[in-house]
Amino acid sequence: MAMQDRAIRTRRKILSAAAEVFESRGYRSATISEVLRTAGVTKGALYFHFQSKEDLAQGVLSAQDQVVSLPERASKVQELVDVVMLHAHRLQTDSMVRAGVRLTMDQTSDGLDRRGPFLKWGSLAGRLLEDARKQGELLPHVEPQETADVLTGSFAGVQSMSHALTDYADLMQRSCALLRHILPSVVTPSLITALDLSETRGSRVFAEVQASLAEVAERAEMAEVAVS
């Protein structure tokens, strides 16, 4: 068990170092040697977990989505809003997310399959919008998957623009503006007024998620103590 825990910690350490290098250097310029120096691990330790630079980059792309899980909402449109705003908040505060986004947007990253994050976002948004349609939250003409793809592409553009202009400092404002422009053409008027589209929504949702995770960890710890 101790060896397994050590392996998990080493993998996380390598991914964190890779995120730092990819974020600052980009995929093409980043090297395995630089990741090794940043992580402070041996080449054998790195290659035990990751077989190549591409494998390491895919690990970063996957890791950005594995940190938090959003609670379900009664309104699926609000849940979609919360997904967008939570990602915007994490992009401002989490180096792993920033590195994943840079890799996703990097058109010079020859040999790296960058489709994964776009497909995941399109699938998640499509599912939430389909659920919203079933609940009567969408206008009759809306095609959920088409809208999901438009939102995914638009949000990617907003992230790129915010990064180029302010290093993500204005990302919350731009994300809110995007939602205010898209949602009225998609969502029923009665629901629009009930949605929380405020710029602080992302940080509040993040705090809610963190509190939920802490509660789960506390219950697991108490259960472990009871068994022992």
Give a brief description.
The chain is mainly alpha-helical and 228 residues long. The chain is 74% helix and 0% strand. It has helices at 2-29, 32-39, 43-49, 53-63, 76-93, 95-105, 115-134, 144-166, 171-182, 189-192, 201-227.
Number of DSSP helices?
11
What profile does the largest beta sheet have? none
| CATH fold assignment of the largest domain | Tetracycline Repressor, domain 2
Number of DSSP strands?
A: 0
What is the CATH-assigned architecture of the largest domain? Orthogonal Bundle
How many discrete domains? Answer: 2
If you average the pLDDT, what whole number results? 90
Shape: globular
Q: How does this structure look, described?
A:
The chain has 228 residues and is mainly α. It folds into two domains: 2-63, Orthogonal Bundle (Arc Repressor Mutant, subunit A); 76-227, Tetracycline Repressor, domain 2. The protein has eleven helices and no strands. Helix 1 (2-29) crosses helix 4 (53-63), helix 5 crosses helix 6 (95-105) and helix 8 (144-166) packs antiparallel against helix 9. The longest helix is centred in the N-terminal third of the chain and has 28 residues, at 2-29. The chain is globular. The two termini are 16 Å apart.
Structure characteristics:
Tetracycline Repressor, domain 2, 228 residues, 2 domains, 11 helices, mainly alpha, Arc Repressor Mutant, subunit A
What's the topology here?
Layout: H1 2-29, H2 32-39, H3 43-49, H4 53-63, H5 76-93, H6 95-105, H7 115-134, H8 144-166, H9 171-182, H10 189-192, H11 201-227
Helix pairs in contact: 1-2, 1-4, 1-6, 4-6, 5-6, 5-7, 5-9, 5-11, 7-8, 8-9
